[in-house]
Amino acid sequence: MGHHWNHSDGYPIEHNRWIVKRGLEETILVLIAGVSGCIVLSGYFFDIRLLNSVRLTLLNYAAILVGVVMIIGGVNIIRVHRNKILAGSPSSAHSLVLLTSFFATIAIVAFFGITSNYSAWIYENVLIPVERSLLALLAVVLLTLGVHIRHNNLNLFRMVFILTVILSLLSATEIPGIEKLRLDQVYQWLAGVLSIGGARGIILGVALGTLAAGLRLLMGIDRPYSD
Amino acid sequence: MSAWLPITINILGLLVVVFFSTLVYYFSQSRKNSKRIFERDIPAYSKMKRSVEVAVETGNRMHLSLGYGGLIGPQAAISFSSLKILEKTSPHALLSENPAIISCGDPSLNISAHDVLETTARNIELDAKLEINQNQLTGLSPFSFAVGALQLTSDRKTSVNILSGSFDSESALMLDSAERSEHSTIAGSANLIALAVFFSGTIDPIIGEELFAAGGYFDPDSKQVSGMAAEDIFRWVIIGIILMGTLLNIIGGL
Questions:
Q1: Looking at the domain assignment, is residue B122 inside a domain?
Q2: Is residue B142 part of a domain?
Q3: Which of A216, A219, A225, A227 to probe by mutation at the B interface, max B CB count within 10 Å?
Q4: What's the pTM value of the predicted model, to 2 decimals?
């Protein structure tokens, strides 16, 4: 291995140029991010007319930016698939279909309007059937993954997971004689007590992580916008 | 009473934010203490480092899928954590004969990922120019994003797939494709359905809050660890409150 993980910055040592310059530009960016974040956050705690007005204005700016970003995203899709077609990659036929559909949809929606019958036809006869068939495929794929779970280090947690899945499936089926086992009550306990407890634990952890990540950004400890 | 309730909740919320901020600030100044509190092994990150190194050595590719969550909205924190994984793995993965490929389902995430790749390429003084195909917006809805990324997960030049960010049940399609191609797969999400899928489809999934530990795990000396240490303390406070509530409930019922 010609390089290794450098704990001071994560870069290979021989390529290490990670000297952060805290210049004026960065200070301005940190200030903009911090002040905007604080205004939006304080709007959740204090009901002051001026504060709400500034908060709404900032959120409107964010909404406009999202719109612009969608256009840039569309350009990325076009460029990536144009490159694939020009390079003659094995999936160039897929890319051609994608680009044709992309432009055809934009033309129809732009010309006839988003609420026109033509736009609705695309939505109902192309988008929904394709997504439904993918959903059907997903059911089979999930079953395959469930069967393959035994390949992935069958430890105690995975055995509990498999047992829970089997119990849940059995409680939902109507096999003669199985009602005597009262699996529906076991399932209700699993779904109502254990799974809710576990889910709450995970969600609490995620909420704390989200809070920490947000505060690090507001306090300028994390500066993803200034590298 | 009802008129005071929203104000009380607001004050409580504000107190939580102030207390948490104080902890984050304290630990960012006292890294020794934060490192002592935040000491844990997350096998998925060790495997991630190893897999990326092997991919670079063998001239193969790392595919990092950042999910479809954007940078505006409730998924933003997860997306920033996934970008942190990109920031820490890309200096290695870009050096491979087949450099890293990124996929995502949100335009703002796509732009940020491009920014991270460009910064990394500049910092490691990469000779080769970044290609447009290295950072792909594969779709804008969860299903179109997953189906668009299938080609990257099963690519024969790819040897490691990292799925980190906002996913849902459709991530099973990506996992299945990676498994069929016999690629090493590391996956993590904060979504409960995606977690169930990852738990059955990968050996060491990154579960919920562990995603936020990416920066601290890759770089234990950084200020990233401050948030992790504050989280750990706050978690014990919440556990204490829950236990006390349960106890009071039991006592009240007697």
A1: yes
A2: yes
A3: A216
A4: 0.85
